Amino acid sequence: MTTPKTVLGRFLTRHASALVRTALSDARIVAVVGPRQSGKTTLVLRIARDANLPYVTLDDALSRRFALVDPIGFVRALPAAAIDELQRAPELILAIKRAVAEDPRRGRYIVTGSVDLVASSVSPDSLAGRVEPVVLLPFSQAEIADLRIPRFLDRAFRADFPRFLSLNRTENLVERILTGGYPEAVARTTARRRTAWLRAYVRSLVRRDVTQEFRVSTLEQMARLVDHAVAFADRLLNLSRLASELGIDAKTIGRWLVLLEHLFLVRRVPAWHRNDVRRLVKAPLLQFLDSGLLAAVRRVGAPPIARNRGKLGQLLECLVFSEIVKAPDLAERGIIMSHYRDKDTVEVDLVLEHPDGRVGGIEVKASATVSPRDFRGLARLKAACGDCFSCGILLHDGDGVQKVAPPQFLMPVGVLWES
Question: pTM to 2 decimals?
C-alpha cells in the first residue's frame, strides 16, 4: 500500500479522522470529499490501512480505464475497498450503489472526491441514504499547530469566556492568513514559492476540473469568473451585476458559481432572517474557503499589507470564516452559518444558529484598536434575537479577552483555535 505523505516532516492529525472512522462503523459507504490537495488521500490511506481495505486511485490510467469500461466488473473485483478520486469515473457510482444494495454490510467502501459527490451534477444518480459524507477542507490552524479540536463554538453558545483574561496578540497572524491551509502551501519554505503554488493550483482547478469533470468549454470565461469572484469575496452577491460584467446571462453565472461551490473553492453565506424582523437584506455573501488562495489570486502579500493595513480586513474575515467552517462540531451539531445586514448597512460578519434556537454573532476587525461603534452590529443582532441571543464576539488583532457588555466579548483571533 502507498505510504501517506507528511507535511513539515511529520504527520498532522486531522480532526475529521474520528468522524470518518465512526462513519465506517455503521455506514455502507463513506465519502470523504473536499478540494484537491486538501489531504484526502493521506487521510484515507491511513484509515484504509487500519481497516485492511485495499486502496485504488482513479488517477491511475489503467484503473480508471477499467472503471469506465466495466464499472460493474470493477466493483465486483473490489467487494470492499478505498477508492480515491471517484469523480474521475462517475459510472462507478451506480455500480457501487447496486453492490451495497445487494450486500448492505457496513464499512464496505470509503471513497474520495474533489467534487461534492452527493450534491453535484457530476453524479449520474444520488447516493443519498447510502453514503455518509465527511468534508475534508485544508488544514485548520489547530491542525497545523497539532492542537486538540477547539471548543470555541461550544463555548460561544454558552458564553463561556472569562470576564477578563490577559493574552498575547495572535502570533504571526499575517503569515497565517497568507499561507492558508493547503498542505502543499503550508510546506513551502518561502512566500514566493507558496504564492506560485497557490496561483498554479487555481489555474489547474479551472482547466482540469471545470473543463473535464463538468464539461464546461468556455475556459476563458470561467477563469474570468474566478477573478470576479475574488473581487466579490465578502460582499453581497449580485448575479445580475456579475453577468453584466462578464457578458453572460445571470442563469449561467448562477450555474457556474454552483460548480465553484462543488469544487470547494467558494461558498455562499445566506442572509440571516426572521419573519418578525423587517428591514433585513436578503442577499447572500460570497466567501472563499481558504485565505491563502484568496490572497494569492488577489496578489496581496506581506509588503502591501505592511504599507496598507486596510488590505488585511477581507483576508482576515476569510480566515475566520474558514476556521469556523472547518470545526468538526459545525456539521456534526447542525449549526447553520449566515450573515446579518440591515437596510442601514449595519452588519455582522457571521451569525451562528444552533439547532436549539440559540444564536451567536461574530464580528471581525483587522485592527488592535476597537471602539463602541464596532459592536453596533452585534447589538442589533442581539435586539433582533431577544432571549435567543447567546453571545456576541468581536475578534481582532489585539490581545486579551474582555467582556465588554453582557453577553459580548472582545478577544484575539487566535482564541478560535487555541480555546
Answer: 0.91
